[in-house]
Design goal:
Jelly Rolls, 3 domains, Phage tail protein beta-alpha-beta fold, 300 residues, alpha+beta, extended, 3-stranded mixed β-sheet, 34% strand, 18 strands
Length: 300
């Protein structure tokens, strides 16, 4: 990108060709975001004419030479715009949410500002505002995570499916497409789904599959199985089991002539691929064929 493109862009002086080249540059997206954020800011009014008058008044009376100030006036406008962008950049960067993401076959431990602990399962994401944390302990989750919340003000987990609120406890939240499940391991959790709140004491869970609330049994474990490198399921449609296998082993899954809606109860390893394939196929009475980074589950 040419050095004078920014100034010309701010003044609306780029040709169509130059503008197209500027928009294709690596810097354009950042400048555009900063400029958009700066539009919401209220900045002091800058009167270029008054500034120029003040400069003229400082000229010595003996100086009779006429000076063209139009280039300087143009510089003042660019400088003012640059100052607004710099202030907007500071404002924009300081209001960005913290974001943590995991890839397939990856988990990650995160320490929140109040020392609450979060462990993200594979293919998951959380975001939160560190700047506003003291006023609002709120995180947004897409995927699955285990939370160990420090005692304090209300702690809220927002998902596309529903909201979970606690004061200080340990719980697991799963929010995948078509699947929403909360398991409380310690304390008390309230879950809001379709504007209806359900309270879960320790050892209880709340599950929604394909829009239907499913009755669940009490939990005897002290933490989710995936923290121990295993994935466990109780009466869950096979399609969600295969999707989790895909996440944990970073492998493409295909199916042929099998009922992916049949219910599955069992556990598979998140580290031993061959063992996991057998743990899924044997109780489901299906076969599999593994080729490189793809696996086909098929019926007789």
């Amino acid at each position: 990108m040419q050095e004078n493109y920014l100034a010309k862009w701010l003044n609306g002086e780029l040709t169509e060709t130059e503008l197209a080249e500027f928009k294709n540059s690596d810097e354009y997206a950042t400048y555009a975001q900063i400029l958009e954020a700066s539009k919401a800011l209220e900045s002091p009014e800058f009167d270029a004419d008054k500034a120029l008058t003040a400069i003229k008044n400082r000229q010595t009376l003996n100086d009779s030479k006429v000076v063209q100030l139009h280039p300087f006036k143009k510089f003042i406008r660019v400088a003012a715009a640059a100052a607004i962008i710099m202030f907007g950049a500071y404002f924009y960067l300081n209001t960005l949410d913290e974001k943590y993401v995991t890839d397939y076959a990856e988990s990650r431990e995160i320490l929140l500002p109040d020392n609450s602990e979060v462990v993200l399962n594979a293919d998951s994401q959380i975001t939160f505002s560190e700047r506003n944390w003291k006023d609002s302990r709120n995180v947004k989750l897409n995927g699955e995570a285990f939370f160990k919340v420090a005692k304090g003000k209300q702690f809220t987990v927002e998902t596309d499916a529903g909201t979970v609120a606690v004061l200080g406890t340990q719980f697991n939240v799963t929010q995948r497409e078509g699947l929403f499940e909360i398991v409380c391991f310690e304390g008390l959790v309230s879950v809001t789904y379709n504007k209806k709140m359900t309270k879960l004491p320790a050892g209880n869970s709340f599950r929604v599959i394909d829009g239907r609330i499913i009755a669940t049994q009490e939990q005897s474990s002290l933490s989710p199985s995936w923290l121990n490198k295993e994935s466990s399921f109780k009466s869950v449609p096979l399609k969600y089991v295969l999707e989790e296998f895909e996440r944990q082993h970073d492998i493409q899954v295909e199916t042929k002539n099998i009922d992916i809606d049949q219910l599955f109860t069992g556990t598979f390893s998140n580290t031993d691929r061959e063992l996991a394939l057998k743990s899924i196929s044997t109780p489901s009475q299906i076969k599999f064929k593994l080729e490189g980074t793809k696996v086909l589950f098929y019926g007789e």
